[in-house]
Amino acid sequence: MFVLGIDGGGTKTIGVLCDHHGRVYSRAVVGPTNPNSLGYDRVETEIQKLLDSIREQTPDCFAKVTSFFAGMSGGDREEDKRRMSGLFQQYLPKGCQVQVDHDAVNALYSGTLGKPGVVHISGTGSITFGIRAQNIRTRVGGWGFLLGDPGSGYSIGHRAVKAIFDEFDGIGEKTILTSFILNHFHLGHVPGLIPIIYDMKKAREILASLSRFVFLAAEQGDHVAKQILYKAGQEMAMSIRALILKLHQDEPNHETIPVVLAGGIFHKADWFVPVIEEILQFDHLQTKLILPELPPVAGSVIAALQQAGVNITDSFIHSFKQEAS
Amino acid sequence: MFVLGIDGGGTKTIGVLCDHHGRVYSRAVVGPTNPNSLGYDRVETEIQKLLDSIREQTPDCFAKVTSFFAGMSGGDREEDKRRMSGLFQQYLPKGCQVQVDHDAVNALYSGTLGKPGVVHISGTGSITFGIRAQNIRTRVGGWGFLLGDPGSGYSIGHRAVKAIFDEFDGIGEKTILTSFILNHFHLGHVPGLIPIIYDMKKAREILASLSRFVFLAAEQGDHVAKQILYKAGQEMAMSIRALILKLHQDEPNHETIPVVLAGGIFHKADWFVPVIEEILQFDHLQTKLILPELPPVAGSVIAALQQAGVNITDSFIHSFKQEAS
């Protein structure tokens, strides 16, 4: 049997056609598909491109796809889910089961292999999301960069720029972030950063992209950079803590909760995992941190397989990892 | 003798024609005149309108103006000062002495009556600025809302919205700010605030305008609101402290420094003055806080009078206050 999983994001959208052994038959990548920021017309164009590509690569398998799951960035409201479902259905084989959900769901499943649990995603932005039995769900954060996006790339880059201006103003400690970031923009002095930061259409992405200099500076022992990463870890933990307390408020003696840490920021997970563990242990929250071995789109494939009644096995992970790498 | 003082801001520009006794002969208000955000063409139109109005109200006095001072928002760089001076000169009587400076200078003088000192301005944004003997100057902050603008209306409003989302997420304390601000926008639920906050052209002004609900909630005893105002006072104090340490770094035993608190946020100064005093006293900084009795444009008139060699007396303050009210 064949299933199709999609991970739709704010920067790109990935689709994978797979069988129940985790063998990948075709794969395609197109542009962003968040209807909130792009509108449905542009989203439809990208989705058509994606499904056309997968169909053309493996027409026979595509015709036999019986289960489909798309985790879509911005796919939060029931109305959006229905509308997106209708859109996908137009391009899928007749009779194929279609499910559209928030992209936090497949990020979670990429770590829990389809089981309930909690996911904290830190990329450019951040969100904490959880599902417990009976599909009860809740979220914390994810309100965008102006409200902080705790532990996100934006929040790390933003703190870096603040630290640079604090040093310049004589309020803050000395930091090598200043030379790293001024050099990066070929600038001679700190106020030169102002027009770059206030290019409002790009502010979010630019500040988030500066997070890499914070890792670099921290690796070289810079105290300010290390503090920024420590603070990010604290924020992640506080969001996870708040989510668990909210999700399990009527169930204080819950089983150990898997907590998936997903998103680009966790390529440098070593800076955060010990801080998160320490804070969660302090509150006696029974959790198990998971750094997923599989990409978020694997979570979509898993959701599609579950929808078709297939149990996920270790051999699935093994073969998906091999084919997708 | 007659002088002309101008206070040029990001939202409006005020001009006052005055004599050395502080008697006001004419007064005009036009739109914003910050060349950084508007461009010189629009600034020239407003300036012409302002000076035309003052001339038409009192043509005889206008013809006898011998000294002119304009404190201009964004008038920071020497190049801008020169260009603005040239612009004013075109519309002023021949031979009139013209000086253009940062608008923090006249805000300072509105409290020190032309003496050196420190000013912290908190309106929509914030900046801390100081002048010591020999016209040595420095600044701290004022880097705009994305970098925090410590103690500003923006920072207060921003914290209010964060507190509302934290309460909603189950991370933060309960606060009446939620009902105040949801009612204000006729909203039924917290996420409804998102499109309002992310209207990027207005985000800064909208968040700053919400500061009034923080005062309202604090007056009704709301703990979250009181904490936000306390934090703003702390930030103001830390900026003032940093500025003094920077400005007088080679002069630890300086005389008592006047610290002027200017800008709209200080209409509710009682929330901040005790916090600022406590923090500055803790550091044994010899300062004297001043809440100016005169508006910022009076500082411009004072600067114009000083330029003409006139000493400012108490009777000046008395009569300016009477005429301007």
From TrEMBL, chains A, B:
- SUPFAM superfamilies (UniProt xref): Actin-like ATPase domain
Cross-referenced InterPro entries = ATPase_BadF, ATPase_NBD, Euk-type_GlcNAc_Kinase
Where does the record place the ATPase BadF/BadG/BcrA/BcrD type domain?
4-301
Coiled-coil features, chain-numbered ranges? none
Q: Where is the signal peptide?
A: none
Entry-linked Gene3D superfamilies:
3.30.420.40
PANTHER family to which the protein is assigned, alphabetical: N-ACETYL-D-GLUCOSAMINE KINASE
Q: What is this protein called?
A: ATPase BadF/BadG/BcrA/BcrD type domain-containing protein
